[in-house]
Specification:
Length: 135
């Protein structure tokens, strides 16, 4: 079951997923290097590097299959990361932009800032007019 934090955004989820998959990719690449060195060591030990030779070591054959599977897994995870990053970039580009705040002239004036003749007058609140507790 895939547990998601309750208030996580899609972007944060994508960033977290990319980080996790990147860590997995790093581990798989390291494993791939180890397998390749094991294949080379087994070929050197048996003094046979021709895979079509019937005397080719069974361990090397199985390691080659494992290496090929890991390479396919790495390719799939890289595609997943690429798709996720592009999805986040697209979602960020298509996200509705915040409208600029209305200027003072565009904002309606509340009734308390209208003078007796209906003209708008500024209402200011000064620090001196507020009561502050003493030190």
């Amino acid at each position: 079951m895939n547990m998601h934090p309750r208030f996580e955004t899609a972007r944060a989820s994508a960033i977290r997923e990319v980080a996790v998959v990147s860590k997995i990719l790093t581990d798989l690449v390291r494993t791939l290097e180890l397998i390749e060195s094991d294949i080379a060591a087994e070929e050197e030990r048996a003094s046979i590097s021709d895979r079509s030779d019937p005397k080719y070591p069974m361990l090397a054959r199985s390691l080659i299959e494992r290496r090929n599977n890991i390479k396919m897994t790495i390719a799939a995870l890289e595609q997943r990361i690429t798709a996720r990053v592009q999805g986040v970039a697209t979602a960020t580009d298509q996200r509705p932009r915040a409208r600029p705040a209305a200027t003072l002239r565009e904002r309606p004036c509340p009734s308390e800032c209208l003078s007796s003749n209906g003209d708008a007058r500024p209402v200011f609140s000064t620090v001196e007019s507020r009561t502050r507790p003493g030190p």
